[in-house]
Design goal:
heterodimer; A: 188 residues; mainly beta; eight-stranded antiparallel sheet; two-stranded antiparallel ribbon; 48% strand; B: 66 residues; alpha+beta; 1 helix; 14% helix
Amino acid sequence: MSYIARTRKILPNAFLFFVETGTEITSGDPPATITIDALAKPATEPADNWTSRPCTLELDIMREIQEEKTLCPRETGGWGTETDYDLIGVKLSFTDKTQSEHFERLLWVLPAKVEETEPQIPFTGSPSIEGWLKIVERDRTGADIVYCDLYGKLTLTGGTKVEGKPTRPQFTFEVLMSTALNSWMAPV
Amino acid sequence: MAKNQPTIDTTPAPGTPATEPVKLRATKKITVAGCTIAPGKVFSAHPDKASEMISAGAAVLVERSF
């Protein structure tokens, strides 16, 4: 997308997809098997490799920036403050329109994926799910404007309240910054 | 194949099916089975595919699967 197009007023929406670490993908001829983790990311196609997340009502990208102020000598004499900014972490917060398998598993801290009629012992699993999150942002004309793949940990923010209105599950996704496979791209 | 690199035998041991996958470690960013994998990733591949990737310098043998 051109710079000019980027300066237009846009109203992006976002669609999220997830693939969990530990997922095995066997493909190719002759076949090879890949176990998904921070060092292995499935391609966008086939889409079956990715699970569509529920409709995203809000997506907030929160960068944690550390400021460091240093007193440096000025060429004209005296001292002046210089500030360095370091990115030390990124968290995404998003709100779903509906409940999901992720929501139930994280709320009840279940040890395995939710399967219908399959009993589990609650509060014996992990309160986070590790994996790849794919973000596709689209403008109002339906054109994709951002593709972003990030590896990290998905957690449920807070719990849920049973009350006379729909539950809007809110999640936090903490990005693992060290993987070389995190990617961002603006499609042309 | 890199100069002076020894030839690595990925053929299965006698009695082991010829299609028995072998375990490899990626040495550079490559695409395998529709996945992008980073250097250091351990994965399994068919012996033919494994030989191909080792020859191309994209992976090294970790251990035999037998």
